[in-house]
Design goal:
The chain is mainly α and about 120 residues long. The chain is about 90% helix and about 0% strand. The radius of gyration is 47 Å and the shape is rod-shaped.
Length: about 120
């Protein structure tokens, strides 16, 4: 068989070899568990990133809709302001045609008296 010189196992050597094998197996098992935990963490992170992406898209869509509504409201407000300016101009013209502010106040006062009289007649 072997040569002249063969190593004779010492009784402690086989235990050291078994301990080394156990240590290596534990390290491999620990590394696999760490990898599994990392994979689970990455999966959770991926799901969170996906949800965050969907949420940001929904926010973007909502902001676009609100911007459109604000633009529409701004246009409506501009139209209403233009109409109010027109009515104000026409009212000033009417006051000037009716003889000035004094006559306009008299007309408003008489209209108020007529409204009061009308309510008195209707509700008595």
């Amino acid at each position: 068989g072997g040569g002249k010189y063969q190593q004779v196992p010492i009784s402690g050597d086989s235990d050291d070899s078994d301990n080394d094998d156990d240590f290596i197996q534990r390290q491999i098992k620990d590394q696999r568990q760490q990898l599994q935990k990392q994979d689970e963490g990455l999966e959770m992170l991926s799901l969170s990133a996906t949800r965050l992406g969907e949420l940001s898209m929904n926010i973007s869509t909502e902001l676009d809709a609100q911007n459109k509504m604000l633009n529409d409201m701004e246009n409506d407000l501009s139209d209403a302001t233009d109409n109010l300016d027109y009515v104000t101009r026409k009212t000033k013209e009417l006051i000037q045609k009716s003889g000035g502010k004094k006559n306009f106040c008299i007309i408003l006062g008489l209209i108020g008296v007529i409204v009061v009289l009308f309510f008195l007649i209707v509700y008595t």
